[in-house]
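Quick check before the chapter quiz. The format below is the same one you will see on the exam, so make sure you can read both the input and the output lines.
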Amino acid sequence: VPSGDVALTRRAQSQSGRVAILIGWSPRSKRWERRGTLVEPWALVSAKAQCEADSEKRNVARQRASERRVIEDREYRALFRAAVLRLYPGCPRAEATDIASHACEKHSGRVGRTAEAKALEDEAVRLAVIAHVRHLHTNYDTVIDANRDKRKSRSTVRGSIQEVLAAWASGRAAPTTE
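Here is the expected output.
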């Protein structure tokens, strides 16, 4: 049974007397990855028949789950936006929306997808706002292109970031972009 079909794998494993997990080295990700499962032939045939019998039901459930996740993601972004505005009432509404959308993008590895952010902890929200300000309200991108040193570049623009954050936190508009 190749990897990827959870229902088929689960059913084949439950019916087979012997099961072996196949793994292989992935040079791209530089780690061992699951390649599939070996099961007895009769168990695989039986599992395939069961999967074909209820494939429509599983497709409907999969579609509903997908729609539910879209709604949940939209609600989460709205809550994240509200958290940005709670911490930084001077942040323009459109920018708060941009911050939430960018930070909370699925599969991005950004701060908005962390457990802390999903709990709407202040520090995670603050980090997302700092990243936004760094790129849109300072000359950070120019500085890092020039010296290629992330730590030094961030240090260079730290003062500008603090000015914008202080203004937004106090409810004022941010100083003009450099």
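If your answer matched, good. The chain has a mean pLDDT of 92.
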